[in-house]
Design goal:
Elements lengths: L6 E6 L6 E3 L2 E3 L4 H39 L5 H24 L15 H35 L15 H5 L1 H21 L13 E6 L1
Helix pairs in contact: 1-2, 1-5, 2-5, 3-5
C-alpha cells in the first residue's frame, strides 16, 4: 500500500464572495446583473439539455429501427449534426462559462496580486468578446444569405427539408447571448477599483489532502 496521503480535487473559492447556483453565481454587489446572467445561462442550459435528450432518444430509435426493421431513419443524422450538436455546443458553452464549468489553469493567476489579476481578466474578457463578435457577424451573414436565397435541402435527401437559415441562426443567437453575459463581467471589472477584482468567483480547482 502507498504511504502517500490521498488527495481530492475540489473547487477553489475565488477572491470575490459569491454563492454558487446551478446556472451561475449570486453576489451582494450586483444582484440584478446576476439575475440577467443566470437567466441567460438557465435558458441556454435548457436548450442544451433538450438537445442531449433528443440526441440520445434519436440514437436509441435509430438502433431499434435499424436492428428490428432494417430501416434506418436517415434524416436523424442531419438533425443531430446541424441542429442538436450545434445547439448543444454553442448554447452549452454560454452556461459552462457562467457556471465556471470550463477547465481553468490558475497556478500562476492565483499567485499574482489583485491588480494583475484584474488586468488578466480584462484582457480575457476582451478576447472572448472579440471572438463572439466575429461569430455573431459571420453567423448572421451566413444566416442572411440562406434566408435571401431560400436555401433548403430538397425532399428525399438525408437532411430534413427545412430552411437552412433555421440551423444557421443557432450560432449568432447563442453567441449574442454569450456576448451579453461576458460584457456584464467586463462592465463589473471596469466599474470597480483597480485594486479589487470583481469577477473572480471560482477560477479553478486545486488538490487538498484528506
Amino acid at each position: 500500500m502507498s504511504d502517500q496521503v490521498p488527495e481530492v480535487i475540489v473547487p477553489r473559492q475565488g477572491s470575490t464572495p459569491a454563492r454558487r447556483t446551478p446556472f451561475g453565481y449570486l453576489t451582494d454587489t450586483h444582484p440584478r446583473l446576476d439575475r440577467i446572467q443566470n437567466g441567460i445561462s438557465a435558458f441556454c442550459a435548457v436548450i442544451a439539455s433538450v438537445a442531449i435528450v433528443v440526441i440520445v432518444a434519436l440514437t436509441a430509435l435509430e438502433v431499434f429501427t435499424r436492428t428490428a426493421f432494417d430501416a434506418p431513419l436517415g434524416w436523424n443524422v442531419g438533425l443531430v449534426e446541424q441542429y442538436l450538436m450545434m445547439a448543444l455546443a454553442f448554447f452549452g458553452t454560454v452556461t459552462a462559462y457562467r457556471a465556471g464549468a470550463h477547465v481553468a489553469v490558475v497556478t500562476i493567476f492565483e499567485k499574482t496580486p489583485e491588480p494583475v489579476r484584474k488586468v488578466l481578466l480584462l484582457i480575457t474578457y476582451l478576447i472572448i468578446l472579440a471572438g463572439l463578435v466575429l461569430l455573431v457577424y459571420s453567423g448572421t451573414r451566413a444566416m442572411q444569405f440562406s434566408f435571401v436565397t431560400s436555401e433548403i435541402p430538397p425532399p428525399g435527401m438525408a437532411e430534413l427539408s427545412l430552411p437552412s437559415w433555421w440551423w444557421k441562426s443557432i450560432i449568432p443567437v447563442a453567441s449574442g447571448l454569450g456576448f451579453v453575459v461576458v460584457a456584464i463581467d467586463l462592465y463589473r471589472e471596469l466599474t470597480t477599483p483597480f485594486s479589487r477584482v470583481a469577477t473572480d468567483y471560482e477560477p479553478g480547482i486545486h488538490a487538498e489532502e484528506i
